[in-house]
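User: Show me a protein chain along with its predicted structure.
Assistant: Here is one chain, sequence first, then structure tokens.
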Amino acid sequence: MAYSAGFTPHPKVSYANAAPTGTASEAEYLEIALTETRDPERLRLLLDESLPTGLDVIDAVEARTPHLAERLEASRWELRLDGVPVEEARRAVEAFLAADAVEVRRQTKKGLRAFDARAAVVALEAFPDAGTGTGPAAAGGSDEGPTRPCAILRLVVRHDTPAVRPDDVLSGLRAVADLAPPVPAAVTRLAQGPLDAETGSVGDPLAPDRDAAAATPSGAAGQQAAVVPETTG
């Protein structure tokens, strides 16, 4: 690993757009500078072995193109709302999407700040949780009796300034439709990367590096980019 120069050298590791504290994530990215070129898969295995269980390095590529952070244009999230019927969640989603703007407030270092949570939301849908007895998995019936309702929200948010987080969207759903889950939502980032605004899909930010590596011989970059899924607390 390469280190910075100066009186107190530090490893050259750059983290890009980390998930908010308290959320789980399957798509966290970092760049590591190396002193010499290494096989990306070998690097991935060594990094993965050094990390605690549940913190897994699932991919690594040689960085052949610049500006990884700029490719992280949007995130795709899943929010589990235990105790919320899917019909109630769908009504709240319809009200949120129909609004021209949804003002929410968040406490920041500079005090309470108000901003629009609607503008950054590219896609938002509500689904039944298959394990609650309300989704497709329950079609065959069950002898276990009624289960607690649970709605699943799937959300694509553009990385704007100020950043709109999943909890801001939940605040917006409460503001426009009085949606108030009885327990905190379980939030997981499923992906982040370049945004296709027409489809609302989030692409692979490492695709340009993969394409460049396939087109040219390995050896010149001396730097690796790794994607790390993690749970933060």
